[in-house]
Amino acid sequence: MGLLLTQLITHLGGRVIGTTSTTAKAELAKRAGAAEVILSSAVDDLAAEVRRLNGGQGLPVVFDGVGAHTFDASLASLRTRGHLVLFGAASGAVPPFDPIRLAHGGSLTLIRPSLGDFIADRSELLRRAADVFEWVRSKALEVTVTGRYALSEAAQAHSDLEARRTTGKLLVVPDAAAIGRREETQS
C-alpha cells in the first residue's frame, strides 16, 4: 500500500517522507517517488527524524498502515491541525487512547477509513474505480505483483504479509493457475 500511496501523492504534487523496515524496501520507496525514506530500525525517535527532514515542522498528513507499533510516532509527526489516516493494523490494533491527546498535539484529527464508506453506491464505486484505472493507464500508478500464491497457500500469503516479508501486491490464485510458481520477494 505504501508504494501506491507514494506514487499517488507524488503524482498529485505532494512530497513523501516514507518509513520502512529494510534497506531494500527503502530503495523501492525512493523509486516510487519518496523524497526521503527513514529506516525505522535505525532511528531512536521517528517523529524527531520526520521533523528534522521536514525543516523542523510536523507534517500535514500521515498515512499509517502499521498501527500499534507506529501510532504514537505518527501522531507526534503531525503539525498543528494535522491529519492522521490510520488505514491498517499490520502490527496490531491501536489500543484505546484518550482523545485529549488530539487536542494536546495541536487540534489533530484521526480517521480510520473503511472502503465501504467511500463507495456508498454503484456510481461512486464506478467513479473511484475509473480514477484508479486511469492512473494505472497513464502510469501515474505502477502496480507491481511480487508474489503469486496458490489458493492452498493463502495462509502463507497472509503470514508473509503480517511478517512484512513482502513488497508490492500479492495474488492468491486457484491452485491450477499457480503453475507459474510463486515469485516471492523476501525483504
Give me the Rg, rounded.
Answer: 18 Å
Can you write the helix and strand succession as a string? Answer: HEHEHEHEHEHEHE
**Parts with pLDDT < 50 across at least 5 consecutive residues:** 181-187
Strand portion, in percent?
15-25%
Given the structure, what is the number of helices?
Answer: 7
Secondary-structure content class: alpha/beta
Termini, distance in Å?
Answer: 16 Å
- CATH superfamily of the largest domain, please? NAD(P)-binding Rossmann-like Domain
**CATH level-two architecture of the largest domain:** 3-Layer(aba) Sandwich
Strand order of the largest sheet: 3-4-5
CATH top level class name of the largest domain = Alpha Beta
Number of domains: 2
Q: Report the average pLDDT across residues.
A: 91
Let me know the number of strands.
Answer: 7
Describe the protein in words.
The strands form three sheets. Strands 3-4-5 form a three-stranded parallel β-sheet. Strands 1-2 form a two-stranded parallel sheet. It has a two-stranded parallel sheet with strand order 6-7. With 187 residues, the protein is of the alpha/beta class. The radius of gyration is 18 Å and the shape is globular. The protein has seven helices and seven strands. The protein has two domains: 2-119, NAD(P)-binding Rossmann-like Domain (Rossmann fold, 3-Layer(aba) Sandwich), CATH 3.40.50.720; 122-128 and 135-180, no CATH class. It has helices at residues 2-11, 23-32, 46-53, 71-76, 100-104, 122-137, 154-162, and strands at 17-20, 36-39, 59-64, 78-86, 109-111, 145-150, 169-173. Helix 7 links the parallel strand 6 and strand 7. The longest helix has 16 residues, at 122-137.
